[in-house]
Amino acid sequence: MKKHVKGILLLAAVMMFSIVASACGNSNGGGGGGSVNVGIVLPTKDEPRWVQDEQRFKDALSGTKYNTEILFSQGSSAKEKENVETLLNKGIKVLIICPQDGDAAAAAVEAAKKDGVTVISYDRLITNTDAVDYYVTFDSLAVGAAQAQYLVDHSKGNGQPLYLYAGAATDNNAFLFFQGAWQVLQPKIADGTFKIANSSEAEKLKDTKDLSRDQMSSIIGQVTTNWDPNEAKNKAQTHLTAAAADMKGDVAILAPNDGTARNIADVFGSDSAVTSYVITGQDAEKASIQYIIDNKQSMTVFKDVRTLVKDAMGMAVEVLDGKSPETTGSYNNGSTDVKAKQTDVIVVDKDNVKKELIDSGYYKADEFTGL
Ligand code: BGC
Question: Does the C-beta of 318 come closer than 6 Å to ligand 1?
Answer without folding.
Answer: no
